[in-house]
Amino acid sequence: MIRTPLRPLARILRARERGENPDDIEAENRRRRHEEIEARAHRRAEGRLVLMAGLFAMAFATVGVRMGALAASEPAEPGAQVLSAQIMSQRADITDRRGRVLATNLLTHSVYAHPHQMVDPVGAARGLKRIFPDLDEERLIRDFTGDRRFMWIKRKISPEQMQAVHDLGEPGLLFGPREMRVYPNGDVAAHILGGSGFGNEGVNSAEVIGIAGVEKAFDAWLRDPANEGAPLALSIDLTVQQAMEDVLATGMRVMNAVGATGILMEVRTGEIIAMASLPDFDPNDRPRPLLTGEPSDSPLFNRAVQGQYELGSTFKIFPVAQALDLGLVNPSTGISAAAPMRIGRFLINDFHNYGRELSVTDVIVKSSNVATVRIAQMIGVERQRDFLRKLGLFEPTSVEMVEAPTGQPLVPQRWPAVTAATVSFGHGLAASPLHLAAAYGTIANGGKRVTPTLIHGRQRPEGEQILSPRAAAMAVDMLRQVVTRGTARGAEVPGYEVAGKTGTADKPRATGGYYKNKVIATFAAVFPASDPKYVLIVALDEPSTRNANGIETRTAGTTAVPVAAEVIRRIGPLLGLEPKTDEKLPTIAPRFAPRVEPGEEAGVRLVANQ
Amino acid sequence: MTEMVFGTTPARAADPILPRWWRTLDKWTLACVFGLFATGILLGLAASVPLAERNNLPRFFYVQRQAMFGGLALVVMLVISMLSPRQIRRIGVLGFLASFVLIVALPFVGTDFGKGATRWLSLGFVSVQPSEFLKPGFVALCAWFMAASQQVGGPAGRLYSFCVAAVVVVLLALQPDFGQAALVLFSWLVMYFVAGAPMVLLLGVAGLALMGGIFAYGSSEHFARRIDGFLSSEIDPRTQIGYATNAIQEGGFFGVGVGEGSVKWSLPDAHTDFIIAVAAEEYGFVLVLVIIALYCTIVTRSLLRLLRERDAFARLAGTGLACAFGVQALINMGVAVRLLPAKGMTLPFVSYGGSSVIASGIAMGMLLALTRTRPQGELAAILRRGR
After folding, report:
1. Is the pTM of this model over 0.90?
2. Quick one: pLDDT at residue B289?
3. Is the CA virtual torsion A353, A354, A360, A365 positive or negative?
4. Among A235, A277, A313, A359, which one carries the catalytic annotation?
5. Across residues A43-70, what is the average pLDDT?
6. For chain A, how big is the Rg over CA atoms in Å?
7. What's the pLDDT score for residue A2?
8. Do the beta carbons of residue B363 and residue B138 sit within 8 Å?
9. CB of B251 within 8 Å of any CB in chain A?
């Protein structure tokens, strides 16, 4: 656009010559320019006004359509007609697989005040302060003498406290019944249960709602009166869970670890019999979530489900099993283990140098990174990735806890050769221990995919066959040899035929790179090897111990393995698993009727433990 | 030019005010306003009875009161609609100054009626909410500033109007009254948009907001859960929204029948914020559709009439008023059908409330005055286009 100057010199000069007022020229130009601006503004505004009118019409149409959709739908619940809506109480119990109570309700009372009905507000405040020392007397007096008409004093009180408040004889202090959720086993299975809190509160009752774990995942079911109080039976076995937590807590202390987690899963059904994460908490008094720092520092963090760990050498069995399945190798095929191995500009090394060649079995038994990478290279990136995906290592587990989706594995976006190589020995792909349990379960289950669950006795469709039974059996046999002559010799528990694989993975720094002196030590076990029934995962976070020579060691073989062995020793009998021995044991006639759990009496067998 | 008309009498110097007013007025919009007001009274007959019973007053006490205030509001609206844009600007700016002073003085002289926010000024028989009256004045003032900034060598009007908007929004947010603050901010944005906000800026801000939203959804689980909860169809039937939803569903297409509804007994705000739920329950989707059509007609008609307007002030002020009116109605109804999170906002002309209906009358009167047909120099524009 060419802009005419307001005072074009040529015209001005001419006007002056003619004796006219040059200001008229300026005024004329000013008017023109103003008209132009106005016309431009008008044109622009036209378009925008049409746009806005259109948007408004659309917005009103949306409201209309939505209103129509609502009007066409049926009322959800006839709750609108009830003047004082009933708050649902009687939340269903949660039990373990044998019907032992894990969560139930207890009737307590709440105390609240109607200050306008009070006879002696100051006396009442003083009395309450005596009964509940944590109350603020000044504040109570202020509230009681002000113009508030209602206030809560305490949400939950014990019968003794209730009697004491009653004895104050103050008509303005009133009680309301209040159901509260109780976890009689304290911190056992805390992460699984989660916890509960109060939702809608009324004077006569309060709604108990789940806030984490199973309590939240099944909140609607637990509150649904249609179930007629039927308890929710979890797949957990309380005694096994307790034993597992005991051993893990001791193991964590002995191995100087900051955290520990253990999962015991039934192979055939995928039912989780015990799942623990330490440190834990008491769901009766759930701590507040951390607002700053790492969520994993909070005891609320469930390492088994939410943890995202690079699980190290435990992954090696996956490429090996796949190679066996594809017929690329057999257990005695020789694989070159010449270290170090170069991929692009990266060097891959082994813990020891294992010489020129290892048999496939020895690759697993001795845990050679280099040889595993060679096997993975034989498989190829695409097939390797497909297999890991089928094992469920790329998606969050479908276990019935609200925390499950947060356990999304960290899978690399692209798979260049070096990533494929590191993933084959368990670095560069971070998954939760529960993922590992499911994947080992699949191998132990003759190659049929196992999906972990917390619900007991539900019929579920059979898993997809992703590995031939023959390859799976060979893989389990190799895992057994890891325990008999390999890196996990400490895991041998006589009679239980433990098979498994160790994994020691450096912890990644938040800032990138890896710590030199912090590891996650994992032992993934399957037992009994001849007919796999259970998968056990034990992982220790930052363990460190000293071996017989007083040298500091962090490898899984010296930390996670002994803990896992102790777990198996403790829970084997609890599971009713008969140890296989060569000796013929004498039969012992019971001299007294053993006290056993109801429902188990018919099937009880006494087994002498050595 | 001057010589040509000097001494001649203008042909229609004394064009009578009323006929000209009637000829130039947007009669459809006026009819819609009367329709809304009639609907309000009709619904008040049902919705305000429980309140009257609770307060031990005659059953139709609030209906009579509303009819009185509404009548007053309609008269005010008609009188204001006879003014010229210049007069609108003057009373608008004066009104803004007066209500601004009142708002600043509120913390010292206002009452909160025990609701926790000091928004009302008690005048004995009636309580006034100055922020309701501030809006039309605010729109007029900002439109004046923005129109002035389009003059050659005019002041930096957009900046001034932005400062005024910021001060008003902060004042309202301090009360706290986020609903009114959002409305004020929205009407300023709309005027700025029509006054020619740079497209790049608009697209940039929209893009940033969208990306921020997606990022927040992806990275913060808490945020995602809130959005999911808002989007999900699950609803707790014991909340206000739950009752409203239920009422709409109970009503279906033709309603449960006049006076048969139950939602007005359970909702404390049935006669104000949730009156649309009462309408839906007793008269069904049909009446709701009529109400929506009335609002939509008023807003779109006014905006389209403003297309022709060549006076920047009239265009901007009209846009601001029409949009504020439309958005207030949209938010109220959007909350009831859960398209928007809960926010207390009255339905203009339909909800009960003396101060609200009179303020709506003033705003609507101003809008009617600004959308009257005026000579726009269309011929000159056509001629100039040929140049």
Report:
1. no
2. 93
3. negative
4. A313
5. 90
6. 35
7. 61
8. no
9. yes
